[in-house]
Amino acid sequence: MKKTISISIIGVVGIILCIYFFEDSDKTLPNYATVIGTICSIVGLSIAYINILALKEESIIISKQIHLTLEKVNQLNSLSEISKAIKVNQEIQEFLRNEKIELARLRTLDLKYMLLHFNNDLLLNELTSDEEYKKLILDFGIDLNSLNETLINSKRKVDFTKVVKNLEELSTYLTKFELKLKSIKI
Fold first, then answer.
1. d(CA 186, CA 176)
2. Most buried by CB count within 10 Å: which residue of 20, 113, 149, 169?
3. Which of 14-28, 62-76, 114-128 reaches the highest mean pLDDT?
4. Which CATH number covers residue 152?
């Protein structure tokens, strides 16, 4: 706004000076109109250029803010997903402790879906590329197969203590990663 006013004042002063220094023979209406029109055009173009630059700067600032907001939303979404996975994990453990194998298996399938979803989350790439996590997921898959076999063949017995221990290790790992993700300031 200050630049616009400054340019306008310079334009008015320029018009006055040009008209003031005209020779008496040049002081005609067409010459006045030409000088005024030319200076007004230059002033208008200058103001337009300054406004374009200001809009460009503002657009860059807004773009950066949008990017930061999206990162924060993605971080919160990832935190939410990890928190849900931890909660489901705890439910599975409780079902196994109470020998509710069918319910445990259903929730295990939900947890499996969540864990697979983590592979596609950009923020959780660090989580899914860790060797400890991969080992925990492998153990989880084995435990899921064991639960399925127990439901199909009731004679087959599964060591639920080991399954619960594996789930607890997975829960601990997810909790550590959740805390790490919360500490990231965006």
1. 19
2. 169
3. 62-76
4. 1.20.120
